[in-house]
């Protein structure tokens, strides 16, 4: 009974609310940003611009892992205790890195990055050869959404629009494929650092550094090259679909090689071997 202790800190509530506010602020950037590009850019330039947007979005997690690697090397109570009295190192299992420091740095960076958005014009003059007739507003009109529904998004209107969007077979198929891809990618990023720590004896700091350096940049480069290829060959929707399917198939085949890579389990007394 003396070893049991109920948690008395409610700091997790602040972290939960902070992440919720961050998600609310970041959500409009991708869908509205893509619509913004699609409405005011030349049709042949849209794939490159969208690729640049997604490539930059991939650089964020890469720098996040590198920042996490740096923070993991710092003791959790940095600034509050004398580090000279700390006798353990990051290689010690009792070490806790300054996980909270990354939140503060990211918050300040997000705030500074959001300031230029306040100076964007409300509307732009469409250039020649822009996507006239193919704007996001026109697409919404084709799906049954009216201007009033855009201005007054009541729940009933949202459900009606959602039903029409999900009724589009191509969009629904693309949505399912995206869910599968992101589910595997998120699981990969979540568990691979811990796998490297356990199987290869790496520290948390070095695992995060290696993941950020080797896993995310190739994805960003691939997204950018995909945009350039689409622009060069001026792919239609059907051509882009075939191109995406082909690349996804090859990626799936190559990813199967992960099943043949592994290490034997550690010898742990009482678990994998007997105490004798």
Question: What's the layout of helices and strands?
Answer:
Blueprint: H1 11-26, H2 29-40, H3 46-72, H4 99-114, H5 136-142, H6 147-151, H7 155-166, H8 169-200, H9 204-214, H10 216-233, H11 237-255
Question: Can you tag this structure with a few keywords?
Answer:
276 residues; mainly alpha; ion transport; sodium-independent organic anion transmembrane transporter activity
Structure description:
With 276 residues, the chain is an all-alpha fold. The chain has a domain at 11-121 and 156-228. It is built from eleven helices and no strands. Helix 3 packs antiparallel against helix 9 and helix 3 (46-72) packs antiparallel against helix 10. The radius of gyration is 24 Å and the shape is globular.
Helix and strand element order: HHHHHHHHHHH
Q: Give the overall shape.
A: globular
- Radius of gyration computed on alpha carbons: 24 Å
Q: How is the biggest beta sheet arranged? A: none
Beta-strand segment tally: 0
Q: Which spans have pLDDT < 50 for at least 5 consecutive residues?
A: 135-151
Which structural class best describes the helix and strand composition? mainly alpha
- State the separation between the terminal residues, measured CA to CA: 31 Å
Strand-residue proportion: under 5%
- By DSSP (H or I, 4+ residues per run), the number of helices equals 11
Subcellular location: Cell membrane; Membrane
Protein name: Solute carrier organic anion transporter family member
GO biological process, one term: sodium-independent organic anion transport
GO cellular component, one term: basolateral plasma membrane
């Amino acid at each position: 009974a003396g070893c049991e202790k109920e948690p008395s800190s409610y700091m997790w509530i602040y972290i939960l609310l902070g992440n919720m506010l961050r998600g609310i602020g970041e959500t409009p950037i991708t869908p509205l940003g893509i619509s913004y590009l699609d409405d005011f850019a030349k049709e042949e330039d849209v794939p490159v611009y969208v690729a640049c947007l997604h490539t930059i979005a991939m650089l964020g997690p890469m720098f996040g892992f590198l920042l996490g690697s740096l923070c993991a090397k710092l003791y959790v109570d940095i600034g509050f205790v004398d580090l000279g009295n700390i006798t353990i190192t990051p290689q010690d299992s009792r070490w806790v890195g300054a996980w909270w420091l990354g939140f503060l740095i990211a918050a300040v960076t997000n705030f500074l990055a959001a300031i230029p958005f306040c100076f964007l014009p409300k509307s732009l003059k469409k250039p020649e050869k822009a996507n006239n007739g193919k704007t996001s507003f026109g697409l919404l009109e084709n799906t049954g959404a009216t201007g009033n529904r855009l201005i007054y998004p009541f729940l009933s209107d949202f459900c009606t629009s959602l039903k029409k969007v999900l009724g589009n077979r191509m969009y629904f198929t693309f949505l399912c494929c995206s869910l599968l891809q992101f589910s595997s990618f998120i699981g990969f990023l979540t568990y691979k650092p811990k796998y490297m720590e356990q199987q290869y004896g790496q520290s948390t700091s070095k695992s995060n550094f290696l993941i950020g350096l080797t896993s995310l940049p190739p994805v960003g480069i691939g997204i950018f090259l995909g945009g350039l290829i689409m622009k060069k060959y001026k792919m239609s929707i059907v051509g882009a679909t075939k191109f995406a399917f082909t690349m996804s198939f090859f990626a799936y085949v190559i990813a199967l090689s992960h099943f043949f890579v592994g290490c034997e389990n550690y010898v742990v007394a009482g678990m994998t071997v007997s105490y004798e």
